[in-house]
Specification:
By secondary structure, this protein is of the alpha/beta class. The protein contains 19 helices and 15 strands. Strand 8 and strand 9 form a beta hairpin.
């Protein structure tokens, strides 16, 4: 039982009498005695005061204004109770003091002459000490119960459930994405509070540093505490209490340590799973999908149904862990829809009919991705190569998805501009470009226009604004400089490929 005015009033040996004024169940951390006109500089919120009323004067007429101002200062400062010692200066408690305490909501009790102030203070101190001992005992018992809960098969869930029982409040765990992963009791808070907590939790996780945050909602207060080491957080613990006493904080600290350990063990297990995934990816690339299907079904669920598409995604090293954690959650939520592994890039295997996971991931993290055409698991190696080629093209522009099918529709020659053929093309066309630079001719543009106009001299001449004989003469001159027969299709294709390979 905490030390309150009620606990003092229950002591018959003190013979205290309540005169009203406000709530009597507020904890009293300490009792002081003072007759100063303004004792607030020496008091702290949550404490109570004993006085004989000397500061009000010794005459029969007591200033109501002075008393009212005195009580107002005490109430504003957070004093939780006032005790008046009778028959020392005043015979009985002044009516003005009773009225002022009622007006300002400050509990007032009368201390008879036979009861010393030190006896009242000692009684309160004894109750405070008993309560502290009881809370310490509770904290030890709670930590012992929580430690035993951690040994159960679902250690993390059992630990959080025991914390909820010990604190008699709602407790939740937010995962690395800020989503509420588990809660005790289930559905213990309204949907709007859940949304608010998830938004605040996600903000803490984006900060990447260990932190604690009090959150006020329309229904009450919460405390959010990140789990894990700075730079790599594993989640957020949410407790439906705005403040905790020392014993409560000790229990929560123990739970944070246990939860952090459990999540760290999960992370070590996740690393092992990651190595296994990489091995399975290699087996898929070699066409051995039966073993991969059996292993995946036992651990995560079946592989996506054929036809499949493979995505290669570029993820920075410092973001890989958080992306993998999110993908693990998606695999648990929708088994059979996604297989992923990290090798030289992050690879996702999804059903060709549903590429939503690739789209969600690239949008959420702003990543570059390449997506293969549809394939079967026997042609997984080809699909993986297509995804890597499309990823290379994606890196050249803004973040997003480039599909291999779009590259194929551009044609083979269009791909030359994205390879290392530009220097070869520049050297191949050098006889033309060097001649134009030294002689002021326009052979290079003429040859390109001629090829664009399907090698027709009349159309080329019209496009360049020259006579067709001039156009023909330039083409023949260009052929001599290149030492190639431009009448052959193979030569024309070679020259056009050179133009395509040069940067625009």
């Amino acid at each position: 039982m905490p030390a309150t005015l009620d606990s003092l009033l229950s002591r018959r040996d003190l013979r205290l009498r309540l005169l009203g004024g406000g709530p009597t169940d507020v904890p009293i951390s300490w009792l002081h005695s003072s007759d100063l006109p303004d004792p607030t500089p020496f008091l702290a919120a949550g404490q109570a005061l004993l006085t004989t009323g000397t500061q009000f004067g010794t005459g029969t007429a007591v200033s109501e204004e002075r008393i009212d101002a005195y009580v107002a200062r005490l109430a504003d400062h957070g004093v939780v109770a006032l005790g008046f010692g009778t028959e020392v200066v005043q015979a009985g408690t002044p009516d003005a003091l009773v009225d002022a305490c009622r007006a300002h909501g400050l509990p007032l009790f009368e201390v008879p002459y036979e009861t010393s102030f030190i006896a009242v203070a000692q009684a309160n101190a004894e109750t405070v000490a008993r309560d502290a001992n009881a809370r310490s005992g509770w904290a030890l018992a709670a930590q012992r119960a929580i430690s035993l809960a951690a040994l159960r098969p679902d250690g993390l869930g059992a630990t959080l459930a025991e914390l909820s029982r010990q604190l008699d409040c709602w407790v939740g765990l937010l995962d690395v994405s800020g989503r509420l992963d588990r809660e005790f009791p289930a559905d213990g808070i309204p949907a709007d509070e859940r949304d608010q907590l998830q938004a605040e939790g996600a903000r803490l996780l984006r900060g990447g540093q260990r932190a604690s945050l009090p959150v006020s909602t329309a229904h009450g207060g919460f405390t959010l505490q990140t789990l894990g080491a700075g730079g790599h957080l594993d989640g957020v613990l949410a407790i439906a209490t705005g403040s905790l006493d020392q014993a409560g904080r000790e229990v929560v600290t123990a739970v944070i340590a246990l939860a952090g350990l459990a999540l760290q063990q999960n992370r070590e297990l996740a690393r092992a799973r990651g190595l296994l995934r990489t091995g399975l990816l290699t087996m898929l690339s070699f066409g051995d999908s039966e073993v991969v299907e059996t292993t995946s079904r036992e651990l995560w669920g079946p592989l996506p149904a054929e036809p499949i598409r493979v995505a290669a995604i570029d993820v920075a090293d410092d973001r890989t862990d958080s992306v993998v954690d999110l993908l693990e959650l998606w695999v648990q939520e929708t088994p059979g829809q996604l297989f992923f592994a990290v090798d030289d890039a992050l690879f996702l295997c999804v059903s060709a009919n549903d590429t939503t996971p690739v789209e969600r991931l690239t949008e959420q993290y702003g990543l570059h991705a390449g997506l293969s055409d549809g394939a079967t698991f026997t042609s997984f190696a080809r699909a993986r190569a297509e995804a890597v080629q499309a990823l290379d093209r994606s890196r050249e522009g803004r973040a997003g998805i480039v599909e291999f099918g779009d590259l194929a529709r551009d044609g083979v020659l269009a791909h030359l501009a994205h390879t290392g053929a530009s220097e070869i093309a520049r050297a191949f066309l050098a006889p033309l470009t060097d001649h134009d630079a030294s002689s002021g001719t326009d052979l290079t543009r003429t040859v390109r226009t001629w090829l664009e106009q399907n090698c027709e001299y009349d159309r080329t001449a019209q496009a360049l604004g020259v006579h067709r004989h001039t156009a023909r003469a330039r083409i023949e001159h260009a052929g001599r400089l290149l030492d190639r027969d431009l009448g052959l299709f193979a030569t024309r294709a070679d020259v056009w490929a050179a133009f395509v390979a040069l940067p625009a």
